[in-house]
Structures are given as C-alpha cells and as structure tokens.
Amino acid sequence: MEQDDYSRRQAGYGAIRKDDQTPVTRVEVVEIVGVEINRMIADPKSPITVHFDSKIDKMMQSMRAITKDIVDGAVEASIRAHVEMAFPPGPIEKHKAHHQGLIDSAEQWKKIKHDILSWGAKGCIGFVVYVVGTALVEHLKREVTK
User: Fold this and answer.
1) What pLDDT, on a 0 to 100 scale, did the predictor assign at position 117?
2) What does the pLDDT read at residue 145?
3) pLDDT band at 9, cuts 50/70/90?
4) Which of helix, strand or coil describes residue 87?
5) Distance CA 108, CA 35 (A)
6) Is pLDDT of 131 > 90?
7) Domain spans, the chain
8) Rounded distance, CA 108 to CA 136, Å?
C-alpha cells in the first residue's frame, strides 16, 4: 500500500475518504493497522518495541530466577542426598557393603510382610473353621435334644 493512500485513510474505520466519499472497509482497516504495526516493530527504538522488549526481559529474568532456584535448590539437594546415600564416603568395599545392607534390609522387610500376610490368612481360615465347627456342634446338640 502506498504511503499516499495510507495517509488518506489513516482517519480510521468508518471514516470517509476525502477523494471519493466512500467509507473505508474492514479489509482496508486491517491492512492499515498491519502496515502501522509492521512499521513500528521494524524500528528497534520505537516505543512499542522498547515496551515489549522490556516486558520480555522482565519475564525472562523471572523465569531464570525460578529455574535457578529449582536447579540450584531442590533438584540439586535431592540429587546430592541420593548420591550420598548410594556412595558413602570411604573405600569402595564400604560402598558395596552399604548396598548389600540395603538389599538385605529390603529382603527382610519383604519376608516380614509375607509372614504377616500368611499368618493373617491362616488366622482368618482358622477362625472360619472354628465358627463353622462351633455352629455345626451347636446344631447337632439341638438335634439330639429334640
């Protein structure tokens, strides 16, 4: 679009052209606005470019701060704790013994859980057998005393 044509239409949507008295269409308004935005963005010192650059810079600074807190803080502490647990200070034999101790402890807990569940199941079955047996004995007593 020519600059001459642009200056004639810059009055805005619904405006009347000076040359032929016809209203400006929506398409022409969109084109005019697009040209103006592109002109403002193309200039690095324009107020709109400076404004958006400052907003983007502030957003990037806050994102860097959040990321730095996450990386430097919680994640690093978690990794450090896992590494210290997995690799205790001292010789490598101590490291192996530490891991073996963790494995043995996990296996003991697994055995304890299994024993508790199996004894619980045996107790439940025994209780059911007891109740059914008691009910059967009581039923036989009533039948005999009739």
Assistant:
1) 94
2) 87
3) very low
4) coil
5) 75
6) yes
7) 1-42, 44-86, 91-146
8) 41
First to last CA, the chain: 114
pLDDT per residue over 51-107, tens digit each? 877 888 888 888 877 777 666 667 777 777 777 776 666 676 777 777 788 899 999
Kind and range of the H or E run holding 65: helix 47-69
pLDDT: is 95 or 112 the higher one?
112
What angle (nearest 5°) sits at the alpha carbon of residue 144, between those of residues 139 and 145?
A: 100
Q: How is residue 2 written in tokens?
A: 């020519």
CA distances from 87 to 63, 79, 104 (A): 34, 12, 17
Q: How many CB atoms lie within 10 A of CB 142?
A: 9
Locate 95 and state its tokens: 């490291």
Q: Average per-residue pLDDT in the chain?
A: 78
What are the tokens at 55? 């907003």
N residues, the chain: 146
**Could you give the CA distance from residue 1 to residue 36 in angstroms, rounded to a whole number?**
11
Element containing residue 38 per DSSP (H, E) = helix 26-42
d(CA 59, CA 51): 12
